[in-house]
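Here is the promised in-class demo. Please do not try to memorize the tokens; focus on the logic of going from shape to residues.
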């Protein structure tokens, strides 16, 4: 895609509304185009400002009752008639309701958009051959590298003895904030583990999702939220998650 096409899609990209392939293409283009980078940064800043400073108003508790009272009460006739006009009105109403329900069901949730973003970040790192900013199998080298680069200290654990050696780490950007991306290997497969402080101390059981052959598992433990993504077998990714959770409990 050229710059004109990229900039036409940037608003949707900022809102995480694009598919995986388009998102990856745009992210790849942004890495080498300062002009589009500036445009993206400006739109992202506007979105953040609107989200932070926008005014939100809650409807009064009796709002629904007020609407019902304001509606005219239909006169009841002794004899109801049925004709094609009535049937047409009913059919139109049913179609409108069905369309509204269908539209609601296909709108991606925040969790869906975040899963797409996790997969896109992982794929982009593989396509650009930049899986790690600090390449090391030593957790005592990778963990200090994040000092001063993040406002939290990510737990870094090496699972080499269990078959998932640490190969490095990098800074990434996920859900509108910098995060730690720890990189592991499972034979020929790369696993990216995104780590970010949890919104609260509540522990969340693991959940999983899949996108175009990539599998994501995420959980919250010990004040941190983890999201692991890879094209490895789902069972292997689940085993990786179990080992990480067990290490967290021992810590």
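The designed amino acids, position by position:
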């Amino acid at each position: 895609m050229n710059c004109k096409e990229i900039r036409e899609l940037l608003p949707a990209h900022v809102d995480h509304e694009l598919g995986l392939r388009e998102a990856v293409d745009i992210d790849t283009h942004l890495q080498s185009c300062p002009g589009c980078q500036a445009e993206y940064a400006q739109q992202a800043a506007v979105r953040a400002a609107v989200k932070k400073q926008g005014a939100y108003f809650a409807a009064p508790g009796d709002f629904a009752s007020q609407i019902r009272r304001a509606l005219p009460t239909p006169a009841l006739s002794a004899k109801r008639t049925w004709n094609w006009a009535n049937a047409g009105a009913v059919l139109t109403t049913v179609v409108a309701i069905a369309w509204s329900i269908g539209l609601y069901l296909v709108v991606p949730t925040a969790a869906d958009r975040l899963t797409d973003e996790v997969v896109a970040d992982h794929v982009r790192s593989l396509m650009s051959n930049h899986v790690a900013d600090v390449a090391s199998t030593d957790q005592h080298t990778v963990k200090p590298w994040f000092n001063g680069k993040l406002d939290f200290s990510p737990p870094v654990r090496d699972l080499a003895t269990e078959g998932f050696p640490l190969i490095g780490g990098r800074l990434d950007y996920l859900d509108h904030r910098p995060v730690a991306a720890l990189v592991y290997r499972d034979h020929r497969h790369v696993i990216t583990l995104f780590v970010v402080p949890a919104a609260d101390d509540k522990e969340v059981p693991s959940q999983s999702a899949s996108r175009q052959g990539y599998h994501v598992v995420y959980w919250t433990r010990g004040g941190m939220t983890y999201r692991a993504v890879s094209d490895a077998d789902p069972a292997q990714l689940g085993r990786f998650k179990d080992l990480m959770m067990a290490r967290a409990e021992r810590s």
